[in-house]
Design goal:
Length: 173
Protein backbone atom coordinates (compact mmCIF):
# COMPACT_ATOMS: atom_id res chain seq x y z
CA UNK A 1 0.00 0.00 0.00
CA UNK A 2 2.79 2.56 0.74
CA UNK A 3 4.08 2.16 -2.83
CA UNK A 4 0.65 2.91 -4.29
CA UNK A 5 0.17 5.90 -2.01
CA UNK A 6 3.67 7.19 -2.81
CA UNK A 7 3.02 6.96 -6.55
CA UNK A 8 -0.40 8.58 -6.20
CA UNK A 9 1.08 11.41 -4.10
CA UNK A 10 3.91 11.91 -6.57
CA UNK A 11 1.44 12.05 -9.46
CA UNK A 12 -0.74 14.61 -7.68
CA UNK A 13 2.35 16.69 -6.84
CA UNK A 14 3.47 16.65 -10.46
CA UNK A 15 0.00 17.58 -11.70
CA UNK A 16 -0.29 20.40 -9.18
CA UNK A 17 3.12 21.79 -10.14
CA UNK A 18 1.80 22.29 -13.70
CA UNK A 19 -1.50 23.75 -12.48
CA UNK A 20 0.27 26.16 -10.11
CA UNK A 21 2.68 27.29 -12.83
CA UNK A 22 -0.21 27.92 -15.20
CA UNK A 23 -2.29 29.82 -12.62
CA UNK A 24 0.70 31.83 -11.36
CA UNK A 25 1.52 32.84 -14.93
CA UNK A 26 -1.88 34.52 -15.19
CA UNK A 27 -1.00 36.80 -12.28
CA UNK A 28 2.05 38.44 -13.81
CA UNK A 29 5.76 37.90 -14.19
CA UNK A 30 6.68 38.28 -10.50
CA UNK A 31 4.05 35.81 -9.31
CA UNK A 32 4.89 33.40 -12.13
CA UNK A 33 8.39 33.20 -10.65
CA UNK A 34 6.87 32.71 -7.17
CA UNK A 35 9.55 35.04 -5.90
CA UNK A 36 8.39 34.98 -2.27
CA UNK A 37 8.90 31.23 -2.03
CA UNK A 38 12.00 30.84 -4.14
CA UNK A 39 13.87 34.05 -4.66
CA UNK A 40 15.91 36.76 -3.06
CA UNK A 41 14.79 39.48 -5.47
CA UNK A 42 11.53 41.03 -6.60
CA UNK A 43 11.10 40.83 -10.36
CA UNK A 44 11.07 42.46 -12.81
CA UNK A 45 13.23 45.24 -11.30
CA UNK A 46 15.42 42.75 -9.44
CA UNK A 47 15.08 44.68 -6.17
CA UNK A 48 16.37 42.81 -3.10
CA UNK A 49 13.57 40.97 -1.30
CA UNK A 50 13.28 43.03 1.87
CA UNK A 51 10.25 43.99 3.95
CA UNK A 52 10.42 47.57 2.64
CA UNK A 53 10.73 46.54 -1.02
CA UNK A 54 7.96 43.97 -0.68
CA UNK A 55 5.71 46.68 0.80
CA UNK A 56 6.47 48.92 -2.17
CA UNK A 57 5.69 46.05 -4.58
CA UNK A 58 2.42 45.00 -2.92
CA UNK A 59 1.25 48.63 -2.49
CA UNK A 60 1.81 49.49 -6.13
CA UNK A 61 -1.63 49.71 -7.81
CA UNK A 62 -0.22 47.72 -10.75
CA UNK A 63 0.62 44.81 -8.42
CA UNK A 64 -2.38 44.74 -6.06
CA UNK A 65 -4.32 42.18 -8.11
CA UNK A 66 -1.18 40.05 -8.44
CA UNK A 67 -0.56 40.17 -4.68
CA UNK A 68 -4.18 39.24 -3.91
CA UNK A 69 -4.10 36.40 -6.46
CA UNK A 70 -0.79 35.13 -5.09
CA UNK A 71 -2.11 35.18 -1.53
CA UNK A 72 -5.50 33.64 -2.27
CA UNK A 73 -5.36 31.39 -5.35
CA UNK A 74 -1.72 30.32 -5.48
CA UNK A 75 -1.44 29.68 -1.74
CA UNK A 76 -4.53 27.43 -1.84
CA UNK A 77 -2.96 25.37 -4.60
CA UNK A 78 0.30 25.36 -2.69
CA UNK A 79 -1.39 23.89 0.37
CA UNK A 80 -2.67 21.00 -1.77
CA UNK A 81 0.84 20.67 -3.23
CA UNK A 82 2.60 20.62 0.15
CA UNK A 83 0.21 17.93 1.40
CA UNK A 84 0.76 15.77 -1.68
CA UNK A 85 4.54 16.24 -1.68
CA UNK A 86 4.72 15.62 2.08
CA UNK A 87 2.68 12.45 1.54
CA UNK A 88 5.08 11.36 -1.18
CA UNK A 89 8.05 11.93 1.12
CA UNK A 90 6.43 9.90 3.90
CA UNK A 91 4.91 7.06 1.90
CA UNK A 92 7.95 6.87 -0.39
CA UNK A 93 10.27 6.60 2.61
CA UNK A 94 8.07 3.95 4.20
CA UNK A 95 7.93 1.93 0.97
CA UNK A 96 11.69 2.14 0.39
CA UNK A 97 12.57 1.31 3.99
CA UNK A 98 10.41 -1.84 4.01
CA UNK A 99 13.00 -4.16 2.45
CA UNK A 100 15.92 -2.78 4.48
CA UNK A 101 16.60 -5.00 7.49
CA UNK A 102 17.86 -2.10 9.60
CA UNK A 103 14.43 -0.48 9.42
CA UNK A 104 12.38 -3.17 11.12
CA UNK A 105 10.90 -0.73 13.58
CA UNK A 106 7.92 1.54 13.64
CA UNK A 107 8.04 3.52 10.38
CA UNK A 108 6.62 6.57 12.12
CA UNK A 109 10.21 7.80 12.46
CA UNK A 110 10.41 8.08 8.68
CA UNK A 111 7.62 10.66 8.79
CA UNK A 112 9.51 13.19 10.94
CA UNK A 113 11.20 14.99 8.05
CA UNK A 114 8.05 14.98 5.87
CA UNK A 115 6.07 16.40 8.81
CA UNK A 116 8.67 19.15 9.27
CA UNK A 117 8.42 19.95 5.57
CA UNK A 118 4.62 20.14 5.64
CA UNK A 119 4.62 22.27 8.80
CA UNK A 120 7.24 24.73 7.55
CA UNK A 121 5.64 25.09 4.11
CA UNK A 122 2.18 25.60 5.66
CA UNK A 123 3.54 28.23 8.05
CA UNK A 124 5.28 29.93 5.13
CA UNK A 125 2.02 29.97 3.14
CA UNK A 126 0.06 31.48 6.03
CA UNK A 127 2.70 34.16 6.55
CA UNK A 128 2.76 34.96 2.83
CA UNK A 129 -1.02 35.39 2.93
CA UNK A 130 -0.71 37.65 5.95
CA UNK A 131 2.07 39.76 4.47
CA UNK A 132 0.26 40.18 1.14
CA UNK A 133 -3.30 40.65 2.37
CA UNK A 134 -2.98 42.63 5.61
CA UNK A 135 -3.49 46.38 5.29
CA UNK A 136 -0.33 46.91 7.35
CA UNK A 137 1.45 43.62 8.12
CA UNK A 138 3.81 43.66 11.09
CA UNK A 139 7.44 43.90 9.97
CA UNK A 140 8.28 40.77 11.99
CA UNK A 141 5.96 38.74 9.78
CA UNK A 142 8.33 39.27 6.86
CA UNK A 143 11.25 37.98 8.97
CA UNK A 144 9.23 34.95 10.11
CA UNK A 145 8.12 34.34 6.51
CA UNK A 146 11.75 34.25 5.35
CA UNK A 147 12.66 31.88 8.22
CA UNK A 148 9.78 29.61 7.25
CA UNK A 149 10.98 29.66 3.64
CA UNK A 150 14.49 28.67 4.75
CA UNK A 151 13.04 25.90 6.94
CA UNK A 152 10.89 24.66 4.07
CA UNK A 153 13.85 24.52 1.70
CA UNK A 154 16.05 22.77 4.28
CA UNK A 155 13.40 20.23 5.24
CA UNK A 156 12.44 19.45 1.64
CA UNK A 157 16.12 18.94 0.81
CA UNK A 158 16.42 16.62 3.82
CA UNK A 159 13.34 14.70 2.63
CA UNK A 160 14.82 14.23 -0.84
CA UNK A 161 18.07 13.05 0.72
CA UNK A 162 16.13 10.62 2.93
CA UNK A 163 14.32 9.21 -0.13
CA UNK A 164 17.63 8.99 -2.02
CA UNK A 165 19.44 7.24 0.84
CA UNK A 166 16.58 4.79 1.35
CA UNK A 167 16.44 4.06 -2.38
CA UNK A 168 20.17 3.30 -2.44
CA UNK A 169 19.83 1.17 0.69
CA UNK A 170 16.88 -0.67 -0.78
CA UNK A 171 18.82 -1.44 -3.98
CA UNK A 172 21.86 -2.64 -2.04
CA UNK A 173 19.99 -4.89 0.40
Amino acid sequence: MPVTLALFSATVSLLLSFVIASEAGKLGFAVALRFLERGRHIPPGNQPLTAANLEIWRSDPDNRASARGYASRIMLYDIAFLLSLGSFFGFGSTALAGPIAAFHFDSVWLWILPALYVASDFIEDMLIRNVLLSPAPPANNFVFMRWATAAKLASSTACFLQIFALAIGSMLR
